[in-house]
């Protein structure tokens, strides 16, 4: 498959960077074609401009600043997101990627006369997420009701159509994790992506 990997972390020596490497290595090992998008390294500007906002709900959204990303997204057969959880959500650079690139006519269509938005990314058949948390699993899942998973798999993945296959790989309580636990998660991620 042609897999678009969207990676968001500013530091090359982070655990997210190691996960990113494991994702890409696993996919290539499995024979997939990888379009590796490192948002920080590519200098992605996450700020939706006034002109983009003005055209957002129109039939002709302003995609001039993100045209290359639109081409990459439309060419993808699968999507992988790799990032650390910050403030119970995505890092701002990744959130801005969705704000600017997942526009009307690219990711969704507004039906005439109102109603639920319609998926436009039916080219994407798999949507996988790899993330890490400082918090323990019970705080994220039982107290906060899993906001990252809900937004990504319950919200954004729906724009890929009803047949999309999703998977959420998460490591919790990372700051207190032993070397063995982080190494085991890294190995799990690489194995999962080799069988993607
Ligand atoms: C700006 C910022 C916000 C964070 N917010 C959260 C949070 O809301 N929930 C959480 O569990 N961890 C939070 N963390 C902890 C990160 O998830 C944790 O540091 C990260 O997963 C470690 O991965 P890394 O070594 O690749 O950076 C935050 C960290 C930073 C830097």
Topology:
Layout: E1 2-7, H1 15-29, E2 33-38, H2 50-55, H3 67-75, E3 78-84, H4 92-101, E4 108-109, E5 118-119, E6 126-132, H5 137-143, H6 147-155, E7 165-171, H7 179-194
Parallel strand pairs: 1-2, 1-3, 3-6, 6-7
Antiparallel strand pairs: 4-5
Helix pairs in contact: 1-7
Flavin mononucleotide is lined by residues 9, 14-16, 84-88, 132-135, 174.
Word description of this protein:
The protein has 196 residues and is of the alpha/beta class. 37% of the residues lie in helices and 19% in strands. It contains 7 helices and 7 strands. The mean pLDDT is 96. The structure holds flavin mononucleotide. Flavin mononucleotide (FMN) is lined by residues 9, 14-16, 84-88, 132-135, 174.
- Secondary-structure element pattern, one letter each: EHEHHEHEEEHHEH
Helix content: 25-40%
List segments where confidence is low: pLDDT < 50 over at least 5 consecutive residues.
none
Distance between the termini: 9 Å
Q: How many individual β-strands? A: 7
Tally of helical segments:
7
The strand line-up of the biggest sheet is 2-1-3-6-7
Q: Which word captures the global form?
A: globular
Main β-sheet: number of strands, strand sense, barrel status?
Answer: 5 strands, parallel
Strand content: 15-25%
Helix/strand/pairing class, anyone? Answer: alpha/beta
Rg (CA only) = 17 Å
Small molecules held by this entry: flavin mononucleotide
Would you tell me the overall average pLDDT? 96
């Amino acid at each position: 498959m042609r897999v678009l990997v969207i990676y968001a972390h500013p530091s090359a020596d982070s655990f997210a960077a190691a996960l990113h490497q494991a994702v890409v290595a696993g996919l290539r090992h499995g024979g997939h074609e990888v379009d590796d998008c490192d948002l920080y390294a590519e200098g992605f500007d996450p700020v939706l401009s006034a002109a983009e906002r003005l055209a957002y709900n129109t039939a002709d959204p302003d995609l001039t600043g993100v045209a290359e990303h639109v081409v990459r997204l439309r060419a993808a057969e699968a999507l992988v997101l790799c990032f650390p959880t910050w403030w119970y959500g995505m890092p701002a650079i990744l959130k801005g990627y969705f704000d600017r690139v997942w526009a009307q006519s690219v990711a969704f269509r507004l039906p005439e006369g109102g109603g639920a938005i319609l998926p436009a990314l039916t080219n994407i058949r798999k949507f996988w997420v790899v993330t890490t948390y400082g918090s323990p699993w019970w705080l994220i899942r039982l107290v906060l009701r899993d906001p990252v998973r809900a937004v990504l798999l319950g919200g954004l993945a729906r724009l890929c159509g009803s047949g999309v296959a999703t998977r959420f790989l998460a490591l919790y309580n990372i700051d207190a994790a032993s070397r063995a636990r982080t190494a085991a998660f890294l190995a799990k991620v690489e194995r999962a992506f080799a069988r993607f």
